[in-house]
Request: fold
Amino acid sequence: MQAYVPIIALAALAAGFAVFSIVAGALSGPKRYNRAKLESYECGIEPTPQAVGGGRFPVKYYLTAMLFIIFDIEIIFLYPWAVRFDSLGVFGLVEMVLFILTVFVAYAYVWRRGGLEWD
Amino acid sequence: MGTTPYLVLSALLFTVGAVGVLLRRNAIVVFMCIELMLNAANLAFVTFARLHGGLDGQVIAFFVMVVAAAEVVVGLAVIVAIFRTRRSASVDDASLLRY
Amino acid sequence: MTALTRQVTEIQSPTIEYGLLAPMLVVFGAAVLGVLVEAFLPRRVRYPVQVVLSLGALAVALGMVVTLADRVEVAAEGSVAIDGPTLFIQGTVLALSLLSVLLFAERRVDPGGDAFASAASSLPGSEDERTLTAQRVQQTEVYPLVMFSIGGMLLFPASNDLLTMFVALEVLSFPLYLLCGMARRRRLLSQEAAVKYFLLGSFSSAFFIYGVALLYGYAGSVRLSDIDRAVSEQVGSEGLLLAGVALLTVGLLFKIAAVPFHAWTPDVYQGAPTPVTGFMAACTKIAAFGALLRVLYVGLGGLRLDWQPLLWAIAILTMVVGAVVALTQSDVKRMLAYSSIAHAGFVLTGMVVVEPAGISSVLFYLAAYGFATVGAFAVVSLVRDAGGEATHLSRWAGLAKRSPLVAGVFTLFLLAFAGIPLTSGFVGKLVVFLAAWQGGAWPLVLVAVLASAVAAFFYVRVIVLMYFSEPAPEGPTVAVPSPLTAAAIGLGALVTVGLGVAPAPLLTLAEQAAVFVR
Reply:
């Protein structure tokens, strides 16, 4: 049972954060409604009868999706490292920092070249 | 349960992917078939890792996934570029380079 | 719980021999720095910074490879092998990359600037593209891309396990797919080349990785030495082994452009920007041959009797198809592409004999071929008309009357390809054929000599065309290059003649290098 204490603590923490966010948002946020917000499946875009542009997505979606995939997939290497964090010690830490820095270089490039701007 | 069914599935996926690459005409679909082949390899790696009782195969699958993600980015960039020029992603249309 | 803890403590930090990996680390480091340069420096200083950074890093890495000579060790927990063949190929690739980057940096022969599109994302023929060209916007992303590719090429022949080899294969390929699509002139052609190269390239690497998966299933490891041990102990199912080897070699033979996996070569070589074509034709092929050598000799040496007949067939096919189809080509770049296919066949001839003489002859041939190839494509980039490079062979008629120097240098490279004495190509062919003959592969040598004769015919045809035809009235002009291209062509010609006249030092080096670490 002892081994499950951290898991239970983490679950409680996560649940607490979720509840806190919803309650805090409901209490502190302004409440303004417009037509788009009242639509079913509200996501800020008014539904149209047919797909806009013949069902094709603008190319900027592609860019964002690709960025997401790249940065998302890098996480793969963090999991095994996190599991063996203790035994890999300083070496593992240094290597992982180097790895993250390299990924960050790509991020800096995307940011400076305007890849993160939507319009 | 033995590991054979997984290997058979992996071989089937690989074949479906390879045949798709040869038969389909849309560059995006061809590309999806290639990704299917990579994932078939992943399934084989994980199954063999189980068979040999090691972790190597699972780690290799991670690397293949990362490579596949990078491949998606490069590939779609190339395909989007030619699509914008040609308004078509059919591999049959790309026929300027011939004897 | 206790069992788990014990398992955790058993894992130890790997040891990384940074000294042995230094050449690769320097090149990759320069590539990452290059990305930062693109991100943070203003546009006008990027070009000089990138060129100096790339050339500097390549020179430093080459120096490091030289200081590492004679080391025979495995590094990074056995996943990288630093031995004679690795260092020889790394040195050759680095030297040829230096020449290629010089060609990349050339900005004087095209009125628009360098050989690359102002912005790869601009639509060909659009207003956007015209504005960018008019403003002489030059893109410098090609330098980090080519550095990443070179880094992959250094790792590829050094990989001692198949996973490292797969990652290296992809690291060297991805930037090349992009570079192929970036030509300034004839952009649609270039983009088509990129799509074809990408689809076929990733198709072949999917075969490669599935082959690795099957070999892993056979041997329980992807380390080449473990696979070798499993083969000699005959554990596991032979079906897995043979299927794995077949798929794996398909992936590698694709990269060296051996028939029947050569279909992409002429299209991609023709469509890609010429500096990229030269770089690909020389460096990719050399690195891929290094990897093929290591896989076949170190990992699958025990399986020799199974793969040798297959390699025989592929070598014969490659030489014959390359030489014969080259005869019918009317485009210089396509002709050189088929000639590179034929050369892959000649190199395979030397690989068929599993002996040190085979390895050293292959290493020498690759170096000789690489320098002539980079030089030849550099010359192709100089012969131009209003639409860019004039690559159609009919346009080259009477070139010697317009520019005796350029025609003369191109003749030298063609003679080297043909294997005429006093050029590097002759010595290369001689050592490869001798090694194959002594290894008992005399029918192969016979075919190779016949194929060389056919190949010599179409090289000589171009020479005749340049010297003994009347130039067309509004024929192409020969651009006067900046010192960058001039240096690349000069060095290529110098090495081609040098290796033909005094091949002994490099031959000795190749002989000393012909030992794999296991």
Notes: The CA atoms of residues 3 and 47 of chain B lie 6 Å apart.
